[in-house]
Design goal:
Distance between the termini: 15 Å
Shape: elongated
CATH class of the largest domain: Alpha Beta
Structural class: alpha/beta
Oligomer: single chain
Strand content: 15-25%
Largest sheet: 6 strands, mixed
Number of strands: 31
CATH topology of the largest domain: Rossmann fold
Strand order of the largest sheet: 10-8-9-6-5-14
RNA sequence: GCGCCAGUAGCUCAGCUGGCUAGAGCACACCCCUGAUCAGGGUGAGGUCGAAGGUUCGAGUCCUUUCUGGCGCACCA
């Protein structure tokens, strides 16, 4: 009967099974298992049967190694797209894919084979058998990696058709890729041409960049004078008279490529000087003159004239030892770092030279055979000689003919074959290309033009600068070399005719595609040309060569660039599986502007005339906290598995959603700790809502909505409903615009400020102290119920596990899957008058802070007197004390600032701890306010 | 070297077409609550807006240069 009377038992205190601690590392796998048991993807799709499809296509990651944080970022962003589309009621059949072929896997497998001592045995096998053996190893390895990566991606709680993914090595996929190729052939966009590649003389094969090792090597470095054909023309270019024949001086470290010299490149914007150097008239870049003078040891140098590189274009020179003339061409890759500013150009022996050669219509001339010796087109004294022996011979010849200015020995790093450790050369070989400037038969437009048009008018870019970037890349991109000389890939189904020419037509490719669809691309290695072309009828093929004899054909051995396979996925997956075309968007790292985006667009435009996507969303790269790129060697790479173990996928996803993905993103375990904190805040807010619904009636969502909306406009409940509606609209719009960060911030702000700091704090008193079934308390519960319903859905794309956990806490273990639901769609206007109430609350907080000086430390020991000159607050009078957290509030039209009244001398309700002025002794002996007395029935 | 992007409080970021003392959140400090409690609330202190020029009545916001970092491309003849 004393003041120690315990009213706690009479309060409606919150109860919930939704735990405060998420324990994500353990709870997530359980959720995954439950999803798997319930066949979540099939269930969700069934719920969306007949709904408007949302076509979204996964770019295939390369099937090598474990997933890294970059995969995590990409896959989680995609998952937020998939899940938010589902919540909008769209049917999204998202198929995860993997890029399976290619050198890194072959390289990896070969390394293992060599380590296992099997390489020599392999080399002894016949060609097709050897390739098949390698391919079998590669396929096994790739399958293993895919299984592992698939698990890792699912562990990120991503939702996709993991039961039926696509692999670029699936027979159906391979066949569809060949169909795309056939389509391009039909459009006249495929051709075969010489192109320089890294060539291993020891292994007589082309090598890719990854197969090169750079080693130190000593090479001769020579300065050579090339005599001008027309001294007068040179003189004119420099505005002087030439008394003797001027030369153009070049510098090279590969004298053996000089027999293939067809041009000299200058930079049109650089200045070039005509100089008299130790008696000889020669041209070098003005800026390099001192360097050249030092390099060749010239003692007497006199400048005769000067001109722009542009003025030299078209001038001709005599090759020093081959019977032909070359000309000066322009090239912007010419630098003033070393050399003479005039670059020896051999289109058959260098990438740049090659491109210049194409532009200038030069021969892609390569007099070097696959064994590294010269053919018969070179001067007699070089024929049959190895290029390495040729260096000395060439220098000797130049010396004797007086063209050599200076020869020295030069140490530099030079590419070597990673297997034989012998130096490689650049050598032009025949390759297959997709031409970007050839007219497509359909429209007469080139791929380049179609692509630039598409980028400019038909594709949305997020962020917008991607458009410029991609346009720039398209404007300058060369023809696409699609052939590779490897084993692990999709064969280019070309045959060699007896005369040596290639046989490859749309119809022949389709015939092979039918075989591949059934037997996979291994068929190319195991079947004869006749079997491969069993379904081919030359009589019906307008492109068939005359007198084709299938029995005389030989298979060729190039495989496709893996980008061609990945770049065909819009057909191999979207069209072949009936998902829809084009995709609403592709979402990848910004490096894919040159990669998958561009290399998907070119085949799609070629075959269909349409770009394969309507929008491109790109994200930046993850860098460490100092902005440096992640790399194993720097030791700053974060490990996905460790992150998941320490923080859980949900915290990782919460962090991803907060990242400004359009730029590079700094990542660090500290940021995950931070994300964990804010995740906890959201979780606890949800928990508070759920825990106060423990005794709420089992309203349907519509009933709860009606009840909440029925409260007077001046109640906190209506305020919250308006905020909730605004949040829902804002977050949904953010998801639609792929602005996950905005969604994240809006949700967090709502949980942290609107709910936790404002609403929950304000309504605690009525929830706990009002009679359990009082209309005021039920109204609040109805609003809270709506808040949980809405928040579960808004959070679901970001935090699928937590959202569903809350959803199940609300609806029970047998609740339908959250992802079969759609957004609630609350329609409640925001009442601008609330702003004044919120401002008043802030003012009260500040005034209370000051009142602590007077000893008023607990807000419930205070009354607030609020200035209300316009009477704006008047209608809200009944809610102000709760909103401000004080015992009571009085309005005064005549004061200018908030005043705090000390209530410590007034009696305090033993149940609600408030001093609201109605507190007095009751029949049970306790000191209670009117409301509390009624609630306990005394 | 070329193209694109970014550089705002200790950290992560807002600041639209230039205009009131540059805003959040987290972290930090101090305080309240102890009936959301391995929770909750309040108040506060933090910034030469990468640097240097320039345009303008006025620039974080426009222009130029420069530094740092990222992506892509090229180069190593």
């Amino acid at each position: 009967m004393s003041d120690a009377r315990d009213y706690k038992a009479t309060l409606n205190l919150p109860k919930t099974a939704f735990p405060m601690k998420a324990n994500l590392a353990q709870a997530e796998p359980a959720t995954l298992a439950r999803w798997e048991r319930g066949g979540i993807f099939a269930a969700v799709r069934a719920a969306r049967q007949g709904a408007q499809p949302f076509v979204f296509h996964d770019g295939p990651p390369y099937a090598n190694g474990d997933i890294h944080v970059g995969h995590m970022l990409n896959k989680v962003l995609k998952d937020m797209v998939v899940r938010s589309a589902l919540l909008e009621g769209r049917d999204c059949h998202f198929i995860p894919g993997w890029d399976c072929h290619g050198l890194p896997i072959e390289h990896r497998v070969m390394t293992d084979l060599i380590a296992a001592g099997k390489a020599a045995k392999l080399d002894a096998l016949p060609e097709d058998t050897r390739r098949m053996a390698i391919r079998r190893e590669c396929a096994q390895y790739t399958e293993k990696v895919i299984r592992k990566q698939s698990q890792q991606m699912q562990r990120l709680l991503t939702l996709a058709d993991y039961a039926a993914p696509y692999f670029t090595m699936q027979p159906s996929y391979e066949a569809a890729t060949l169909e795309v190729f056939a389509g391009l052939l039909e459009q006249g966009l495929v051709f075969r041409q010489l192109k320089p590649v890294h060539w291993s003389i020891a292994n007589r094969t082309a090598l890719a960049e990854a197969e090169l090792e750079y080693e130190e090597r000593e090479d001769p470095s020579v300065h050579v004078d090339f005599e001008a054909v027309d001294p007068a023309a040179v003189g004119a270019a420099f505005g002087v008279e030439c008394e003797c024949t001027p030369s153009f001086m070049i510098w090279t470290t590969t004298p053996w490529t000089l027999p293939a010299n067809l041009a000299i490149a200058v930079h049109p914007r650089y200045r070039y000087a005509l100089v008299e150097m130790d008696g000889a008239l020669t041209v070098v870049a003005t800026e390099l003159l001192p360097k050249v003078q030092a390099a060749v040891g010239a003692s007497d140098v006199r400048r005769i004239g000067e001109a722009d590189g542009a003025a030299l274009l078209g001038l001709q020179y005599r090759h020093p030892f081959c019977a032909r003339e070359g000309r000066i061409v322009g090239a912007d890759y010419v630098t003033l770092e070393d050399g003479t500013g005039l670059v020896h150009t051999a289109p058959g022996h260098g990438e740049d030279d090659y491109r210049t050669g194409l532009r200038e219509s030069l021969d892609i001339y390569c007099p070097v055979r696959d064994d590294g010796t010269y053919d018969d087109t070179v001067p007699e004294w070089l024929r049959g000689k190895s290029v390495w022996d040729a260096n000395a011979l060439v220098i000797d010849s130049l010396e004797r003919s007086g063209h050599l200015v200076k020869a020295i020995s030069f140490r530099h790093s030079y590419p070597h074959d990673w297997r034989s450790h012998t130096p490689v050369i650049f050598r032009a070989t025949e390759q297959w290309f997709i031409g970007v400037d050839r007219p497509a038969r359909r429209s007469g437009e080139s791929l380049r033009k179609m692509a630039i048009d598409a980028v400019e008018t038909r594709v949305e870019f997020v962020p917008a600068w991607g458009r410029n970037r991609m346009r720039g890349m398209l404007e300058s991109r060369p023809d696409w070399c699609i052939s590779r000389q490897r084993a692990w890939g999709l064969p280019i189904p070309a045959f060699k005719l007896p005369g040596g020419a290639a046989f490859l037509t749309a119809a022949s490719v389709r015939a092979v595609a039918r075989v591949v669809a059934e037997k996979g691309s291994d068929a190319w290695f195991t079947l004869s040309p006749a079997d491969l072309l069993a379904g081919y009828d030359a009589a019906k093929d307008p492109d068939a060569p005359a007198g084709l004899d299938i029995a005389a054909l030989q298979k060729m051995h190039d495989i496709f660039d893996v980008w061609f396979e990945a770049g065909s996925s819009w057909h191999s997956v979207l069209r072949t599986r009936g998902i829809g075309f084009p995709s609403a968007l592709y979402l990848e790292g910004s490096d894919q502007h040159r990669g998958w985006f561009q290399l998907s667009m070119l085949p799609a435009l070629g075959v269909t005339g349409e770009p394969p996507f309507s929008a491109l969303v790109t994200h930046g790269f993850l860098v460490d906290r100092d902005g440096r790129k992640m790399s194993k060697s720097l030791g700053n790479a974060l490990d996905v598995e460790t992150l998941l173990k320490d923080f859980g996928a949900e915290v990782a996803r919460w962090w991803v959603s907060s990242a400004p993905y359009e730029n590079d993103i700094r990542i660090d375990t500290d940021y995950f700790r931070l994300a964990g904190e804010s995740y906890r805040k959201v979780r606890n807010t949800l928990r508070f809502l759920l825990s106060n619904l423990f005794d709420a009636p089992a309203w349907s969502i519509d009933e709860a909505h009606r009840l909440a909306a029925a409260a007077p406009r001046e109640t906190l409940d209506r305020w919250l409903l308006g905020e909730l509606a605004a949040l829902e609209a804002d977050v949904r719009a953010a998801f639609r615009g792929f602005d996950f960060r905005r969604a994240h911030l809006a949700i967090f702000h709502f949980c942290n400020e609107t709910l936790s700091a404002a609403y929950c704090a304000a309504v605690k008193d009525r929830l706990y102290c009002d009679a359990a079934d009082s209309p005021r308390r039920r109204s609040t519960q109805a609003v809270m119920r709506m808040a949980v319903e809405v928040l579960c859905r808004l959070l679901a794309p970001i935090l699928p596990h937590t959202a569903e956990e809350a959803w199940r806490a609300l609806h029970g273990e047998n609740a339908p899957l959250l992802f079969t639901q759609v957004h609630v769609g609350i329609d409640a206007p925001r009442d601008p008058r609330w702003q004044s109430v919120m401002d008043a609350c802030t003012a009260v907080s500040k005034a209370l802070e000051a009142a602590k000086q007077r000893g008023i430390e607990n807000p419930l020991d205070a009354a607030a007197i609020l200035p209300d000159p316009q009477g704006v607050l008047e209608p809200f009078a009944a809610e102000l004390a709760d909103a401000c957290g004080v015992s009571r509030v009085r309005l005064d039209r005549s004061i200018a600032a908030v005043e705090i009244e000390d209530l410590r001398s007034e009696p305090r309700c033993e149940r609600s701890w408030r001093r609201d002025g109605t507190v007095r002794a009751r029949t049970d002996g306790g000191m209670l306010s009117d409301r509390d007395a009624r609630a306990v029935g005394v």
